[in-house]
Fold these 2 entries.
Entry 1:
Amino acid sequence: MTLAEAAEATGGRVLGDTSVTFERISPVHDAGPRDLAMLVDRRYATDLPGCGGRALLVSEALCGIEDGPADRVVVADPHAALADLLPLLHPDPPRDRGVHSSAVVDPSVVVPGRASVGPHAVVCSGVTLGEGVRIGANCFVGEGVAIGAETVLYPNCTLYAGSVLGDRVVVHAGSSIGVDGFGYVTSGGEHRKVPQVGGCVVEDDVEIGANCAIDRGSIGRTVIGAGSKLDNLVHIGHNVTIGPRSMLVAQVGVAGSTRTGAGVGMGGQAGISGHLRIGARAQIAAQAGVIGDVGPGQVVSGYPARDHRTYLRAMASLMKLPELVRRMGRLERRLDGRDGA
Amino acid sequence: MTLAEAAEATGGRVLGDTSVTFERISPVHDAGPRDLAMLVDRRYATDLPGCGGRALLVSEALCGIEDGPADRVVVADPHAALADLLPLLHPDPPRDRGVHSSAVVDPSVVVPGRASVGPHAVVCSGVTLGEGVRIGANCFVGEGVAIGAETVLYPNCTLYAGSVLGDRVVVHAGSSIGVDGFGYVTSGGEHRKVPQVGGCVVEDDVEIGANCAIDRGSIGRTVIGAGSKLDNLVHIGHNVTIGPRSMLVAQVGVAGSTRTGAGVGMGGQAGISGHLRIGARAQIAAQAGVIGDVGPGQVVSGYPARDHRTYLRAMASLMKLPELVRRMGRLERRLDGRDGA
Amino acid sequence: MTLAEAAEATGGRVLGDTSVTFERISPVHDAGPRDLAMLVDRRYATDLPGCGGRALLVSEALCGIEDGPADRVVVADPHAALADLLPLLHPDPPRDRGVHSSAVVDPSVVVPGRASVGPHAVVCSGVTLGEGVRIGANCFVGEGVAIGAETVLYPNCTLYAGSVLGDRVVVHAGSSIGVDGFGYVTSGGEHRKVPQVGGCVVEDDVEIGANCAIDRGSIGRTVIGAGSKLDNLVHIGHNVTIGPRSMLVAQVGVAGSTRTGAGVGMGGQAGISGHLRIGARAQIAAQAGVIGDVGPGQVVSGYPARDHRTYLRAMASLMKLPELVRRMGRLERRLDGRDGA
């Protein structure tokens, strides 16, 4: 691809030679002579002097930066440009079609023409598969599961009986969906299981990372709203509703029956207690522990989670607390001294 | 099922028409005309005006609540009633028996008459299987593993060689049991592995969530005590003993050689350091980080974990700390002013 | 094995009868009459009076301790001695060789003579396998993956296409390697996926625990440095570099593009934000939440993470804060009283 073509595909412009070509995009510190080096952020500018890339992908704000390749593609947002260019540089490989001979597919299941079922996958009775569905090797798709068009399961996933996945859903390797929730009735110290008979619905355009665990409802349903993205190792408890277009970073946990609004963000390792309501566009900082409702647009952090700025300010003053204790002692002694005088 | 039958099964009573029937139980906000709507808690009472359920399952405390269906089953504890009613409404489906033709079972293994081994499961030599055991698709059961009667493995689980599971154990999808512990000897910055040759014992009536990882002992054993319940994505280190009838919520981690008493509770994402003792019935709050022993019945939270109430009180006063710093400055200036006067 | 032989293998010495024999090594509280009981630490000395072991493995510092077996092997470091003795007591079982008849291996793949591919494993086209590689049951090895000599995959692992594993790597059950990173461009509240086309490199002698998730680079590479050890349920984001010989305890999460130096330690459940640099030999305490760069050799804890001692001191004084607020009020009243006088 030439720099001219890259500029056209991204709505950007070229500084230098428009006919320069590249084969792939690499970070500045890792770029070779056939690469377009991408400068993500000013803090990586220190890597520029040693950059071996043929040309530089850079934002308007940083386009005049001194070091690094002189031939440049200048764009409004390098990340958006990356999303534009990568599909052109790395077109999807041709897909297998059909059912691998080692897969075990119940005879009642209709596999559409462009769909595929990988080696050693198991597809149980009553399953419905949309056009273009791809089921990875060693996946288990339980009885009565419904999977929408163009949805992809990477290898070693388990869909419990009755789970419902929308169109264009992506589930990464090792994830378990529609798992029994953690529901027991305790009496006399013994825990009796409450049967988990509810549903688990993953709406259109959701992407779920590797090794996640998403519970079915106990009664009622667990719902992951359309367009939401879950990173790796995320836990979603029973009867939870995650609103549409939310972002849950790795190792987040959401406990049972909590409902979140649209466009909520949760940083890595954040935890939300059960039976809460989290308003639309709320931001839960990494590692926050939320034990009360959060309003729309609120930004919270810490345990128990509070307003993010208030929390950070309090933690900063906490570091001065030992000094404050000393100052308090001095004040008391001064006052004692005067009173004694 | 009629309301009269439901009342009888739960030891409750009917308000209104005892002959009203329902087919399933649903949360108030999700109930349709064939459903018994279940009101879990007063905070969901706001969903009652729009409730489409045919009747209401409700506690004695809330039985007179205004909105929602007038025909009601009133019980002491709705959750316990749920555990009574669901098995009647959703009887277990008939189970497959026998060994699927695609499973690989060592010829030395005896599969009891009511047991089942799913598609593509692998059962190695020396494995013993109790009556009624069900091994899910794509599970791996290593050499010499012993599995008690009526135990269920959901798909894609791995039991390392020598693991021992009791009767009526349930292991959800993707969990790994009997994994090598994290044991190394470091010298000169290099980490040399200490062979992990100990056992891993999961006692009767334990339930283990999806995508958990439970280590074997290095020497000695890791033990999950009878009747304990582990949620999803829980980590248990080597040589740990979890006492009987404990509850470990999702994403809990317990480091090596820690021993906990009976009936301990751990909230989501709590972590316990290694080589500690946690007393019976202790409660470790969600996200707590425990780095010292905890006495029987103690309730702790925070990092480092302390008495729960003390911690919450301290965190509340922390939020006033910036204001306290200002008050301190004012006091010092007043005293300086007087001393100067 | 006799105590004399054990002393010779560990560079230790015998107290008592050198001809005493044992068959295995056990913790003090669990040792039987054929066992060498191992006393790890003074805090387990309380188990000594009831110890049923035939002899005791103990450090120089504790060798004179009163209770427990009188015949003793005394060593500088019992853990190092354990690493010396266990391979002698528990030699590796003979390994299967060759490809199991149920495995699906692309015809283009060359399987070396001492390598093995387990039941129901899937090995795609373009994969290269080193001598002695062992691929566990139900593993999926994607297109073009390269695996070095003597590397072991336990069952149910997934290696995404193009992943590169060095020599003597160990990957425990259920782990996913080379997963798509969490990369989206958001506009108008919609999240558009940035294709994840980078590499994932796991260098020589790395061990990865069960149910981990390691992302590939978006562009560029994710690298786990040689000799590093990851415990269970660890998450590594895209474009991360983990320096060589590091130790990441269970449930750690490292967000995208962070680079860590050699010999870094991270305690259980610690989290590191994206785009940071962590210096060589830094120690991140359990549950720490790191949101800024950490210098070489620094020890940090808490959220946001700070110097470990400063943080612990601050948390200790925090517990006295409610009392401090009361003292402040008393001081203000005294001063008010005097000013009013």
Entry 2:
Amino acid sequence: MDTPHAIGTTPGEALAPDEALASRDLSPEEFRAAFRNHAAGVAVVTADPGDGPVGMTATSVFSVSATPPLLVFSVSELSSATPGILRADSVVVHLLGSGQAEIAKRFATSGIDRFEDPSTWDRLPTGEPYLPAAHAWIRGTIVNRFTAGGSTLVVVNATDASYPEAGSAEASAESARPLVYHNRTWHQLGEHSRIA
Amino acid sequence: MDTPHAIGTTPGEALAPDEALASRDLSPEEFRAAFRNHAAGVAVVTADPGDGPVGMTATSVFSVSATPPLLVFSVSELSSATPGILRADSVVVHLLGSGQAEIAKRFATSGIDRFEDPSTWDRLPTGEPYLPAAHAWIRGTIVNRFTAGGSTLVVVNATDASYPEAGSAEASAESARPLVYHNRTWHQLGEHSRIA
């Protein structure tokens, strides 16, 4: 077994009980290295704060409560779409299938107009821009914003959704397999990745 | 294309622009169905609020900021370990590899003593219980708790970590591939799941 990279301590039997942990902030490099092996589902968040559509790829979306139906995502102050999303009252959170990696890449690319091609998006009757090609989407109103370092946690109360009916051909399609992001690569879940 | 299950609207070209969305809370069943295809990395959070170790499996861990190094996870009031974790000042967040699905299952099982086998856990010099077999772990202090419905978002400032050195045999091992949870099944990422 190789020596793991340890900050302030070493794991397993090598750990001396009286050894003091460094207990300082991890450096950005250490923090990213510790998280390197953590995978995430991929979503695209869109909104229109009143002056045009904004959108960004997010790997930080999860459901926190089914009653009431609440989801959370985080936006970094470093992302160009963040100010617009934080000014909006409502958002659409698209949960992507593995056939939609191109959408994820487009909404993660800086310096382009992510809504340039009008065939890729439309508006809901309530006005929000959305991506009809996404596997599933959830519309909701922003009910809370919490600051955490250079990011903001956004809490959304879900009011509308669209997703393939379980067991339908669309739900079973190859392109409907979950899209997962890990260490700068895109992955598709399916029988091939399942652990017995 | 099958008709997708839509709440208040239908996607794509069938969407009538003047059709009103229902814009009510999604039911728990609708909300869960919309999220069914969203995968997540798997973590186990452990702590000791002063009266013994507690721990739970969490699929809601993500990093929100590298400077300062902050991560977030959510705990549901329905989980037995939640009161203990919310009383603690510090936690250890273990990011699991695909060889550690047994750990994830144990910390997701109700009605058992998750720390019964003393060979599976130890304590850090700072006192927190931790799981030496986990692929990587991050210790940190709880700096914020936000309520969202029946759950609490916990913000952790990372102070210590242990993870395999990039490129080491341990980091490249089969068991070190990311463990992913999706729709009640466990998955392993790797070359086999990668999208070209």
